[in-house]
Amino acid sequence: MADKLHFDLVSPERRLFAGDVDQVVVPGEEGDFGVLPNHAPFMSVIRAGAITVIDGGTETRTFIHGGFAEVTPAGLTILAEEAIAVADIDAAKLSQDLADAREDVTAAKSDEEREQASVLVAKYEAMQAVVAH
Amino acid sequence: MASLKDLKNRIDSVKSTQKITKAMQMVAAAKLRRAQEAAEAARPYAQRMAAVMANLSTAMSGTPGASPLLVGTGKSDAYLLVVMTADRGLCGGFNTNIVKKARERVTALKAEGKDVKIICVGKKGADQLKRNFASLIVDKMDLSAEKTISGATAARIGDKIRLMFENGEFDVCELVSAEFVSVISQKPRAKVLIPAIDAIDEGVERPDLGGAVYDAEPDEETILNVLLPRYADTVILSALLENVAGEMGAKMAAMDNATRNAGELIDKLNLVYNRTRQAQITTELTEIISGAEAL
C-alpha cells in the first residue's frame, strides 16, 4: 500500500490525532463508511459511536460524540465535540453514569432537565454499545 | 515628621504589598502560558470549521431555504451585544477597554435608531455597564465558577443566544471581546456572530477539490443546520479563550508595574528612614556632648 491517508481528529479543546494512516472507519449518520486514501470529496454528520483507525495491521478505536467528517483530497478531518479512546473507557464507571443519567430522566422536574438527561443517556448507551462490541 | 517606628511600619507594609503583587504576577504568568496553550490547541478545530463553513455557505446562501442563522433575518433593527470581560479586576485597563468599546458600539447603534440588548459574560463588564445601560442588559453570566473554559461553556452561551434568536429578540449578534495581539497588547473589538455569513472571513483557505464536488450525507442543508450552531460555539469559545489569555497578559503587565512601583517606594522610604535615624543620632550626640561640657 503505497498511499496513506492523512487523518486529523480535532475537538474544540485540542487536536487529538494528526498523522498518516491506512484506513479510517467512520460511523456516519446514515451508516458506517470507510475512508481509504484518495477518497472522493465527501462530508457527513457523525452519530455517536466509535471510529476505527487502521494502520499497519493495528486497529485503534476511539469513541466520538457529536461531530462532523470531511474528506478532501488533502485527507480526512473529523471535528468531534467529544472524543475518548475506547481503551480508556471505564466500564464500571460508565454503567454507574448511565444509571445516574437514567435516574435523572425520571427525576427531572422540567422538560429542559429531562431533555439534557436524555441526551446523556443516549450518549452513555452509545458508549456502552461501543465498549461491548 | 514621621517617627522612626511609623516609617518602619510603612516600609514593612509596602514590602508585603510588593510580595503580593510579585506573587500575583507569577501566577498570572503561569496562567497566561496555560491560556495561550489552550487557545493554541483550539485553533485547528476553529480553522477547519471555518473552512468547512466557508465552503458550505457559499453553496447554500443563494438558496431560498437557507437558515436565518446563516443569512440573517433580512433586517437589522435589533442588535444583541455579547460583552465578554474578565471576572476579576487588577488587570490594568483590560476590562475598562472592552467596556469602552461596548459603550461606543451601543451609542453608535442607538444613534442609528437600532434596538440594543446586552448580554454580559464576566462579572466586571456587568458591573461597569449597569451604570449606563442597566435597562439594556438582558442577561448576565458569571464564569468565575468554571475552572477551565471548555466547549461546554461556549455551548451554554451559544444556546442562550440561539434561543433568543429563535424568539426573534434580535437580528444581528455581535461579540465584544479582546483580541490577543501580544502579551502586552490586547485590542478590544466587536465581531459579528449572527448572521454567520458576515462572520466568515474572506481570507479562509478553501481546500482545493480539483474540480470535484462534495458528496454530502445526509444532504448539505442538514449538515449546515447541524454545523451552524457548532460554528457559533467555536467562535464563542475562541473569543473566550483569547479573552482569558488577554486578561492574564494584562494582569501580568499590571502586576509587574505594581511590583516595580512598590520597589521604588521602598527605596524612597528607606532613604527617609536612614536620614531620620541619622538626624536622631546626631541630636542625641549633641545632647550628650553638651551635657558633658556643662559638667
What's this entry about, in short?
The complex is a heterodimer of chains A (133) and B (295). Chain A is of the alpha+beta class and 133 residues long.
Q: Which two chains touch over the largest interface?
A: A-B, 25 and 30 residues
Continuous helix count of chain A: 2
According to CATH, the homologous superfamily of the largest domain in chain B is ATP synthase, F1 complex, gamma subunit
Query: Which structural class best describes the helix and strand composition of chain B?
Result: alpha/beta
Instruction: Report the total helices of chain B.
Output: 7
Keywords:
heterodimer, A: about 130 residues, alpha+beta, ATP Synthase, domain 1, 2 domains, eight-stranded mixed β-sheet, 2 helices, 8 strands, elongated, B: about 300 residues, alpha/beta, Pyruvate Kinase, Chain: A, domain 1, five-stranded mixed β-sheet, 7 helices, 6 strands, about 65% helix
Structural notes for this entry:
The complex is a heterodimer of chains A (133) and B (295). Chain A has 133 residues and is of the alpha+beta class. Helices cover 29% and strands 47% of the residues of chain A. In chain A, strands 1, 2, 3, 4, 5, 6, 7 and 8 form an eight-stranded mixed sheet that branches. In chain A, helix 1 runs antiparallel to helix 2. Chain A is elongated and about 55 Å long. The mean pLDDT of chain A is 84. In chain B, strand 2 (115-121), helix 4 (123-133) and strand 3 form a beta-alpha-beta unit. A five-stranded mixed sheet of chain B has the order 3-2-1-4-5, sandwiched between helices. With 295 residues, chain B is of the alpha/beta class. Chain B is 63% helix and 15% strand. The chains are: A alpha+beta (133), B alpha/beta (295). The interface between A and B is medium-sized, with 25 and 30 residues. Strand 5 (42-46) of chain A pairs parallel with strand 6 (215-217) of chain B.
